[in-house]
Amino acid sequence: MKERIAVPITLDLDAGMLGPEMLRLTGRQRRFVRLILEYPTAPLWKIMRHAGYGTETSSNASLRVMGCSLVHNERILAAMREETSRAIPRGAMVGIAGLIEIATDKRSPDRLKACIALADRGGFGPKTEHKVIVERTDEGRMLEFAERLANELGIRREKLVGPNVIDGKATKPH
Fold this sequence. Notes:
The protein is mainly alpha-helical. 58% of the residues lie in helices and 0% in strands.
């Protein structure tokens, strides 16, 4: 039994519906991008044949080789990224519709999870707090360490701690 690809009717869209990366491609290249995104697991030679590449006598192997070169073409890759980025928001809408469907089904065992997910994405997520503790260190000890390390390495202390260090003694304010 042969695997068939049903080629969508809307494969060739008018230029007004295409992004700049798709507009840089030829008609066959555009069909190739549409087909590979629509049927990512289909054999490459079939996608190539449906996109209009090869002849009736072209072997599957030669179509596969041509397809491999297209898959690595920078213009094709840019168009694939462009088309994928346009599809993601549509997919998000499908996901939200599914969440709403589950959240409104009182018999669904996942209703609570769906409700929490919708509330979270709607701006009513749990409040989080972060506690930052700043600890002061004995700067005198750190400067002594830097001095000792600089001497061992044979470099000036300023290389380690920077030029803005003022020699002196820290005292507690009154």
